[in-house]
Amino acid sequence: MWNDKIRQYNTLLARNKKEFRPDSFAIYMDYPCGRKIVRAVLRDLKKSSEYKNLLMYKPSLVNEIQDCLNSIL
């Protein structure tokens, strides 16, 4: 698992090193562990203030509960 997180971190950092691309963070915003990777990359890019803008990619709690219920039923 740790190696996977390092790989994700390096991939995200490489994609955004030359030019900041907010859309490249979208797939990492679904789960808490992905959001931690996003925060680490933003910190290293010195763009921590962009996190609040990336929250638009985070699924809402209502959608998460509906998806969970749909999968059970």
List the keywords.
mainly alpha, globular, 4 helices, 73 residues, single chain
- The tally of helices reads 4
- What is the 3D form? globular
Cα radius of gyration in angstroms: 14 Å
Helix and strand sequence:
HHHH
> How many strand units?
0
Distance between the termini: 30 Å
Structural class: mainly alpha
Poorly predicted runs are none
Helix content: 55-70%
Report the portion of residues in β strands.
under 5%
Instruction: Characterize the largest beta sheet: strand count, sense, and whether it forms a barrel.
Output: none
Overall average residue pLDDT = 91
Your description of this structure?
It contains 4 helices and no strands. The chain is mainly α and 73 residues long. It is globular and about 45 Å long.
Sequence-ordered SSE layout with sheet pairings:
Elements: H1 2-17, H2 32-45, H3 51-54, H4 61-72
Quick summary:
The chain is mostly helical and 73 residues long. Helices cover 63% and strands 0% of the residues. The chain is built from four helices and no strands.
